[in-house]
Specification:
Layout (H helix, E strand, L loop, with lengths): L12 H32 L1
């Protein structure tokens, strides 16, 4: 059973929050890129 304490002892909530923010930023970039691609396709038609 995982008790929330990592073996390395250097993973804390701040680090997990940092990783979550990186993932969100990447998701936003991908979504924005797809929206731009869709707009280009629409404008070309």
């Amino acid at each position: 059973v995982f008790d929330g304490v990592y073996i390395t002892k250097d993973i804390d909530q701040g680090y997990l929050d940092y990783l979550e923010n990186l993932r969100r930023d990447d998701e936003h970039k991908i979504r924005d890129q797809h929206e731009a691609e869709n707009l280009e396709i629409y404008n070309e038609g």
